[in-house]
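Hi F.,

I've been meaning to write this up properly since the lab meeting, where we talked about keeping a consistent format for the predictions we share between groups. The idea is simple: the sequence comes first, exactly as it goes in, then the structure tokens exactly as they come out, then a line or two of notes. No screenshots and no reformatting. I'm using this chain as the first example so we have something concrete to point to.
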Amino acid sequence: MRAYVFTDKSLERYAGQFVWLSIDTEDAKNTAFLKAHPISVWPTLLVLDPKDKVIFRYAGGGTVPQVRKLLDDGQHAFRGAHSKADTLLVRADALAGQGKQAEAAKAFDEAIAAAPKDWPRLGRASESLVFALLQSRNPQRCAERALTLYPRVRGTGSAVNVAATGLSCATDLDAKSWNRSELTAGLEKATRETLADAGKIKMSADDRSGLYESLVDARDQAKDESSARKLREEWAAFLEGEAAKAKNPDARAVYDSHRLEVYLGLKQPEKAIAMLEQSERDLPKDYNPPARLISAYRAAGRFDDSIAASDRALKLAYGPRKIGIYRSRAATYLAKGDKASARKTMEEAIAYAQSLPGEQVSEAMIASMKKQLDTM
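Output, unedited:
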């Protein structure tokens, strides 16, 4: 969004209406903010009142028109809700902003139930509801509500997140779930329909890529290798086209993580390596290119290059992102057959994670790393 959205001149009209602030959640100096406003998705857009109370929250990115609509909704919430549904929506946003996702989901549901027929905030409320259910680890309810709400947001920007998030929830369901097949089929159809409407719906390239990702995951879950490969090839072609249109290295690098995923899925690590090496040359102070090269080199069997890339990434990174770099480095040592170095790296990762403020790393993540260490 920094490269494609916040630079748009149409947002200048909001300059005197908001005090703009960007929070680096990786920096330990911002832990007080994170304690008050837990963040689990990047980007997350918040509108705070002068007393630091969340009156509007939206998890995820968006296009310029979507951001304008979100800012207008934020102003609407600040001036005071005008209906029962609006009041409930403000409460739901506040609960989500406190990290109380299960309670927020209930409040979003209540807002939707109380909404008038042509409620202009139905789309955002629907997106927020399915996301809150995903975050509260309730995939059953998430998939069911997404499938029910999709017809009401079909053909709008909100259809993207409702369909894709719902499909992700459906594929996460236990195979024994009585309606897993029905939910997966319905939400896969909705996601394909939304992707086919990409020319009509104003969605970001990032959102369109997310639709491909959800569909690929669904086909992988179904063990449909042929369809999954075809989708990955379409996905790769789309991303390559978008990257080619980028006006500068920062804008092009926006697609690096997506392209890495799709190239590894296609078993074409060499394409990912060429792309990421170019990004590292163009953006020498950014830890992301070398961090992503760790897995690309590993997939190509270039283990020493992978370890060297992790060295470069660790020198540039800070905060919680270093944990992922350590874990990827350990995976390379394991692939190389060096279990002693893999264990040492995981021990370093755990020690580093334990040194971070509690707002930046969860006990569940540390427990997961300890369990991983025990299996080495």
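Notes:
The first strand starts at residue 44 and ends at 48.
DSSP finds 18 helices and two strands in the chain.

If this format works for you, I'll send the rest the same way.

G.
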